[in-house]
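FIELD: query
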Amino acid sequence: MTDNIQYADYDSPWKEVLEAYFPQAIQFFFPQTAAIIDWERQHEFLDKEFQKIAPNSEQGKRYADKLVKVWLKGGEEVFLLIHVEIQAQKEDGFEERMFEYHLRIYSHFHQPVISLAILCDGNRKWRPNSYSYSYPDTQMNFRFGTVKLLDYQNRWAELEASDNPFATIVMAHLRTLQTKTKPQERKTSKFNLIRRLYEVGLEEKDIRNLYRFIGWVMMLPEGLEEEFWQEFQQFEQERTMRYMTTGERIDYRKGRQEEALNLILRLLQKRVGELPESLKSQIQSLNLTQLESLGEALLDFTGIEGLQTWLQANQPE
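FIELD: result
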């Protein structure tokens, strides 16, 4: 088994934490927008409505979107589109896509829209924040709010001092980028981040939520994952608190594997077409690490032959 660490599927954990801690997300990343929202009034997630408006927003892309209806302090209803871009490099056409979503939401609801983007990529120079065009009698300039997670690398002390859940989320994301090819270092960082959850005195539900995010994005090769879990169990025993049981951990890994399998099968169908049952069976027998490797490899497949070659070279143990 190689020590090279593949990217995790960030989509689900980001969507989960955005839904669990939406006010904290806006307060952490976009304080000026947060300041005009009446947080005492219930916000409403509009996932189904957004999928109808932008049906292609979930097609195998590395990003997460949330459309949320909120109320301003003056009583005005407004729609908030918060977009998390998770790709490893800049994307051509990103600004236009933000404009298109903004326009579709406004056209559907006929209400003001605030568009925001969290950029999780590793390219310091890529900082999209506008889309515009200009002609002699027509001019359009659309600007949207962005934050770049890489900018927090120089604010580590500030992150450690913050009790906002997204400080932990940003630290986990940055450590994931920094340890992409350093599994032992990632294991140490993962343990330190999870230990911090207990030391800052978070409630049990918050520890569980943030543990899930950290565990998902800071994935380890199977051997190191077992070592990590043993050390983590000992840590909990020393503090006479046990929030993650062995059964929950097994269910968690099973859930990750099932989700990874379903995602891989969908992407393969889009990439190479309908799969024969024999190939599906081989894919279903892969472990989580192999599924994640296949998720990276399939981007280079030009036909079903590429999949067959990969499976022959990566037979289940």
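FIELD: remark
The two ends are 10 Å apart (CA to CA).
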